[in-house]
Structures are given as structure tokens and as C-alpha cells.
Amino acid sequence: MYYTKVDLVVFSSKSQYYYTNISIYLYVRNTFLNLKVVIIFCISFFSKEGHGQLGFCQGNSGDPIFTDTFGAGIQDISLPAGTTTYTYANGQNPNDGLYTVSSNSNYFDWFDAEDHTPNDTNGRMLIVNSSFNAGEFYRTTIAGLCENTTYEFSSWLLNLSPSNGFCGAGLIPVNVKFEIWDSTDTNLLASGTTGNIFGTTAPDWNQYALVFQSTPGQTSVILKMINNGVGGCGNDLAIDDIVFKSCGDAIDVNDQNNSNSITLCSTQVPYSDTLTAIPDNVVFSNHFYQWQMSTDDINWLDITGETNATISISGVTTTTSYRAKVAEFASNLNNSDCITFSDVYQIIVNQAPAFPTIECWESATFDDASCSWIITGTQPEVPTNLECWEIPTFNNTTCLWEISGSQPVQPSIECWEVAVFNNTTCSWDVTGTQPMQPSIECWEVATFNNITCSWDVTGTQPEAPTNLECWETTEFNENSCEWDILGTQPIEYIDESIRFCRNEEIPLIVATSIVNPSYQWDSGQVSQSILVDNAGTYVVEVTDGCLTEVITFNVTEIEDPVIETVNSNGSSIIITLLNEGDYSYALDGINYQNSNVFSNILSGVYTISVKSNECDTIVTQAYFHFFIQKYMTPNNDGKNDYFSLNVAQFFSSSELSIFDRYGKLLFSAKNRNVNWDGTFNGTEMPTSDYWYRIVLDGKVFIGHFALKR
């Protein structure tokens, strides 16, 4: 075991009392690092007396006098009455000032840790959420002690709050005071603190201990573990494996060669030697011995009369261990609560193995030092320069190699093959390939001639067919090995579209490149042309006996235009038809255009005209167009030079008034067509927005327009 010593000095504050300085040694065993850390506290107390040493037993210990592992189970339990001043959580979360005895520590943001007791299932531990006030975590009374005997009081502690948890940098460390009082609970016999146990990033159980010596006449003590930290976020801990046991010197047991054990072979027994117990005198001033022996390191028997520091042993034939019970006072030697034990000296006797099974070329010699047989000898070497088909087999009777095997028989081969024996593969290699079959026509057959070792080809091509039609040709098919007759009678299909006006008769004339053709119409006629006056489909077949054309005439009648609607969109007039076609549009029956939209048209009544461009049909419709201008540009370019209202003739009464943006009347007229030129009393009005008020047969229109110069 390794030890690391850390000195920590704690100073008290000023007081009216004088100081008493006490050095307290706190040894900490770390289960993860296998270290024992000795922490020395130099503490100034406001009293006149000091207490015992805080730390681990520096020598050997006896069997535990008292152990509390808190048991095992999945149900939480409470401590016996009087064991703690904290309140049992009774199934609730252990908040400040509460405790529970549980196998589960997964409360709040605490570690979800297992208890410390080794090899238990669902082991419990004492879990405490420390209060703001100091209180007793744990107390118990130990009776039946021996006087003038050194004891160790220890426990394993775990800080449950992770350093990276909820409390952050403000995490309060755990700090526990260990105290030992007399049976009257009035005299403090020994005490010491763990110091601050800071939070970690993973569960870290550590053991702390307090050592003291009983006084004459003292047979019982009270053990206490007390909260020595402050309340707040943190100072939450788990306690497990509380142990109270005797403490004595570290005592080695050596033989005459200063060894603490020996390993023998069964050929070296019986064994004799002298063993000596060597104490380090750290704890005991005197030493009284009782030697013991064991054959299983579990059950120990006292050796009658062996009570000195040395013991002579003899006649040992099996594995046996020796140790000494040790007490500081002779009266305590037979009290198991007052003794410690020396280290164990073990004599290990290994049974010599039976004579081994060996090969015919081997010999065996026994070695006492290793307690084993040494086998020597090597097998005769395998013979070399064998043929590939030969196999060596070792004969254990003659202890010699025997050779067996024969060469493989040469295989039968084809006329084109050659056989050569391969010593690498130990087989015949056959080489050569059959002459490649020649390329043949589909009507030919190739047969291999084993006498000439070559291919014979026979067969003739079928003759081509005769008496073909003028459009037919022949082609030999290598797949079917027959002549294919190709070609179909050529027929060209032609579509023509013809349109005609209503009440018109039109000719359907056939144009063809066929020389000296005959004609056959679906109507029964046989001429080159026919006259029709109805829409429909007319088909004629044209042929010279070899070439054929089928001509289809699709005859349709041109529809007259049908006006669906005429609408005004601002100053534009839009004409919409019910049908589609090649039509022209006009507002006066004279000036036609292709577009059905007329732009910048003054208000008034117009004769809407639509005519077919393919026929002479014209349809008309009267339409009244009325709109109010959005702007005027009086720059004499002939476009929008006036703000006009030319609809007086269409209404029984009409009135127009124009105002500037401030409401001043600039122009007015009644019951007549007007064109305002953008002046007032001969003065051009500036670019701006102007307002109008129009009344037509009592209906009022109010809005504004822009004048731009």
C-alpha cells in the first residue's frame, strides 16, 4: 500500500481563551487510486485539553468488533431510534435535514451510485441531506472493550453532489467530525474532522478513520459522526461500512532466510524451519504472542505452548499457514476484541506430477526446484529427396520413418493432346486443344474426323424462290436458313383540307404522280374530279396496278362570325365572338382591322362590324360607348388634347363641371358636347390633378383626372 502525506493547517479566530494546538492525522484511503493520504490538521481549540489521534491504524488489526453495512434490499428503511438526530424521509425525497437508508441515491442531481460494501446486491447506505444546523449523522455504543487497548473507528464517505451539477461553483463541500465519547457521553475521548470533501465528476468513495486507546477500567465507548459543514446547496453525503476494530503493530513473520513464505515440492518434505515475529513497535510497548496454524487460511488453531516471538516448525508435508495472535497485555491475549494478528507465513507444498507419457525418442528427469519433469530428446528428422508421390510415416514401434506411395497412372488422351508429368503438382498435365471448328454456313454441317484429326464440312445452300410480285424482293435469312420474301404493295395515304363558303359548289381535283392511273371515289365515281356543295369527307383511290395512292379530302364549311359581347374597358372597345375564324373588325363598317380591340375611342354610338376574310359575310351591331378620361395632354399632338364629354345627344339632360384642387370652378357646361382645352379665362392651367362632376339624367359621377404638360 502506498501513502501520500498532505499537511493542512487550520487556524482559529481570536478569543479570550488561550490556544491549545493539537496535530491530528487523517488518513484517507482512495478506492480508485489505491492511495492512503495522511492529512495533518494543526487545530487551535479554545480549551485546555486535547484529544486522540485521527488516522488509520498503522499496524495490523484484529477482526472487526462492530460493523454496520446497513444491509441490502430495494425497500428504504429507517435507522433504529437514537442512531441519528436527522428525520427519516419516509418514502419522500430526502430534503434538507432528512435521511434515508436506501440502495438508491438517484435524488435531485446527485450521483446514481452503488453502496460501498463489496459483493452485495442492492446494498443499502445511509444517505443524508445535511441541515443548516450541526447534527449527528450516526451514533452507536460499543461495549465489551479491553482496557489499555488501541482501536480504530472507520467509515467510507461519498460526496453525492457532482462538481458540475446544479450548485455550480457554489457547491458546499462535505465535512464530517468523528468523535469517541465515554459511556456516560460526558467525556470526549478523541475527535477529528475529515476536512472538506469536495464534489467530483464521478462517484468517489473514500475511507476515513480515527484511532484511540482505551484507558484502565474502560470497557465501552460511544461512536459519533457529526455534520461539520454548513447548510445550503451541497453538503449531501452517503455513509457506508462503519467498522470498529482493535489496532496493533505491523508484525512481519520471517523464516531463517528472512523470507515471508516458501514454496516446496512434495519431494522436498517433511519441512522444518524457525519463524520469528518482528513487530514495528509503533503502537504496542509490550508484545504477548499465541502462535496459530491453518490449512485453509480460514480456520485457525492455537499451537499449544507456542507463546514466544519465535516458533520452531517441523514435519510439514502439506500446505500450511502460520500466524501469531498479539496483545499488548497478557490478560488480553485470549479476548478476541483485544488482539491483533501478525502477517501470515505460508508454506506452499505442490504435489509432484506423475511420470509423464513420452515419445519413443524422449527421456524424462525430475527437477525438484521446479517440481516438474524435464523431458529431453528430439524426433528423428523426416527423410528428404522424396518423390512427390511418396509419403513418410513415423513408426513408433521401430522409432523410424517409413516411405510409401507410387506414381499416378498416365491418363487417356485425345489425338490432339500431350501428357507431361508435373513434379510440382504431382500429377499429369494434359496440354493441347482440339482444332477449332471452322465457320460454316447455316446449311452446312461440320463433323470431327478422329483419323485425320480435322473437321469435315458438308451441305449446300437452298435455291432462291421465283415468280415474285413487282414490289417483292428476296433475302437469305441466316437464322432460319431460308429465303425471306420482302416488300408490301406500296400505298401512299394523302390528306387534303378544303374550306368553302356557304351556298358555294367547289371541285375536288386529284393531283397524282402515278402514270396512267385509274380513279375510284367512295361515291362510286371514276373521274379525276368531282363537284361537292356539302361539308364532309371524300375518299378516292388512285392506282396503276402496282403503285396506289389513297387521297382523303376533308371538306368544311366556313362559319359566319357570331358576336357574343361588346364591352368598354376605359377608352377601349373589345369585341368578343362565339366562334373562331379568320375575321376582321370595324367600328364604322369601312375601316377594318385584324384586332378585336379598339383603343382611345371617344364616347358615342358605334356600328360594330365583323366580316369573314374568306367569304363575303358581314355581321353588325350598334353599341353605345361611354368613358371618362383619366388624363389629358394639351400639347396639340392630336392625342388627348382635350377633356371631352360628347354624349349630350344620348341623354335628356347632361352637365359637366371642372374644379382645381382647391375647389375653384374652372369650367362648366350643360346639355351640350364639350371639349375643355385646359385653360381658364385664356390662361393655361398648370400640370396637376383636377376634379370633375358629371350629371347624366340625374346620375352623378365625381372623380379626378391628371393634366400633364
Overall description:
With 709 residues, the protein is mainly beta. 0% of the residues lie in helices and 46% in strands. It contains no helices and 54 strands. The strands form 16 sheets. Strands 1, 2, 3, 4, 5, 6, 7, 9, 12 and 14 form a ten-stranded mixed sheet that branches. Strands 16, 18, 19, 21, 22 and 23 form a six-stranded mixed sheet that branches. Strands 46-54-53-48-49 form a five-stranded mixed sheet, with no helix packed on it. It starts with a strand and ends with a strand. The relative contact order is 0.06.
Please give the structural blueprint.
Layout: E1 2-9, E2 20-30, E3 35-45, E4 61-68, E5 87-88, E6 98-102, E7 125-129, E8 136-142, E9 150-159, E10 176-182, E11 188-193, E12 206-213, E13 221-227, E14 236-247, E15 251-254, E16 261-265, E17 271-279, E18 288-294, E19 301-302, E20 310-316, E21 320-327, E22 340-341, E23 345-350, E24 363-367, E25 372-376, E26 391-395, E27 400-404, E28 418-422, E29 427-431, E30 445-449, E31 454-458, E32 473-477, E33 482-486, E34 491-500, E35 506-509, E36 518-521, E37 529-532, E38 536-543, E39 548-557, E40 563-569, E41 572-577, E42 583-586, E43 597-598, E44 604-612, E45 618-625, E46 631-632, E47 643-645, E48 654-659, E49 665-670, E50 674-676, E51 679-680, E52 683-684, E53 688-696, E54 699-707
Parallel strand pairs: 1-3, 5-6, 16-23, 34-39, 46-54
Antiparallel strand pairs: 2-3, 2-12, 4-14, 6-7, 7-14, 8-13, 9-12, 9-14, 10-11, 10-13, 15-17, 17-20, 18-19, 18-21, 21-22, 21-23, 24-25, 26-27, 28-29, 30-31, 32-33, 35-37, 36-38, 38-39, 40-41, 41-43, 42-44, 44-45, 47-50, 48-49, 48-53, 51-52, 53-54
